[in-house]
Amino acid sequence: MKRAWHPEELVEHWTILPGEWPLIEHKHGATRLGFAVLFKFFQYAGAFPRAPQDVSLTVVDHVAQQVGVPADTWPSENDAVTSGKVVFERFLNQQFRCSLASHLSYDIHKRLDHSRGRITSPRQH
């Protein structure tokens, strides 16, 4: 994933849309930021990041401002065990991936590649 983002790109790809807030609004603190970042990352990349460092800090800052959570709750490269790292690992579990995929209208039973956390193609209508 790219590291440098222009403000217009952040707005286009990383802004939480009104219909997405019901998924985020009941979460708090690091959980809210972690969920929102991973949700938007999945929408953008079609996969989940393998590590917190795969997400640009510019992106994390942009999302953090929207959800009202300090960006420093996202784990940094030097963090050993932090609440952000725990959130990150928890959100990468299968239940979270399936929940997100379902929201994004993917047929996860046929298209979820469990070894990579990737969705191979959207549901055909």
Q: What does this entry show, briefly?
A:
50% of the residues lie in helices and 3% in strands.
How does this structure look, described?
Helices cover 50% and strands 3% of the residues. The protein is mainly alpha-helical. It has one domain (7-119). A two-stranded antiparallel ribbon has the order 1-2. The longest helix has 17 residues, at 29-45. The protein is globular and about 30 Å long. Mean pLDDT is 76; it is low at 107-112 and 119-125. It has 7 helices and 2 strands; from the N terminus they run αααααααββ.
- Domain count: the total is 1
Mean of residue pLDDT?
76
Residue runs with pLDDT of under 50 for 5 or more positions: 107-112, 119-125
> What is the SS-derived class?
mainly alpha
In terms of DSSP E residues, the strand content is under 5%
- C-alpha-based Rg, rounded: 14 Å
Q: How would you describe the shape? A: globular
List the quaternary state of the chains.
single chain
Helix content: 40-55%
The number of distinct β-strands equals 2
